Write the structure tokens for this entry.
Amino acid sequence: MIDFILILKLIAGFGLLVVGGDFLVRGALAFGVKRDISPLIVGVTVVAMGTSAPEMVISVLSAMTGHPQIALGNVIGSNIANVLLVLGLPVLIHPITTKQQGLREQVDWMLMVTLGFTLVCFKAELSFWVGISMLVLLATFLQQSVKGSIPLSALNEVTEELDDLPKESHSYPKIAGLIGFGVLALPFGADLVVDAGSILAIALGVPESVIGLSVFALGTSLPELASTTVAALYRNSDVALGNVLGSNLFNILAVLGVTLMLTDIPVDEAFLKLDIWVMMACATLLWLYCILGASIGRASGIFFLTGYAAYIFSLYSA
């Protein structure tokens, strides 16, 4: 029997992660405008925080508190959910085209990073030097984005928002309050989620990795799911594809990169039997859509959602 208090802790934890990440982003935006920092520098920082903050604090905290398989499962599960769920649901409302400028470069990077991560996982342990390599790759990707070699839709959105934000919009105390609340809310929310998640795994009789792959991955993907669904309602869902590609890149390079700087993560053999391959298949499928210039429509959405439901069912029926 799952305790009602446990569910409330999970909901409260995810709520704090979402709100904390939003406040941190708002504070960073306002600080950048106030100090006349380059919009590109602020944009890259905000995109990284906004895309990775919930996954990062959960992965770091879980790995540092003796739950490394939750950390790894959260990243793998989030990348699967981003493709099958975050893209699958909005295309039932409005199709997504794959012919945007610069999309090919993004999807090539996403596939390359996912393939590299898959190969490294078969070494059985993700170590400090793997984390260093991931962060170097992330820095290279961001440098190319800033130079314009790899157009990043999320970066364009943030820089446009910066242009519209008046310099007098926030005082320094208000900026400090926004950033301070975000810095406090994120680890507190992650602590609630990790604590409740580890107890939930025991209550359900499943490995912690399954909770990371399903509950945590779904919880941290909810903001992206909400934004892509709203975009689809306004027939502006094309931007969702670029955001999913960026999110999957940041999940591997930033979230795992930072986590591995702090502690090694052994790769559970269960990940190698199914989950890594599902993640790789999702990345390859998205890559094929993009290189063929095919629209992701309602039939694809039904296929994606059915695939996600089957994957989640397989986790709990094994």
Observations:
- The beta strands are 125-126, 265-266.
- The domain at 4-317 is CATH 1.20.1420.30 (A middle domain of Talin 1).
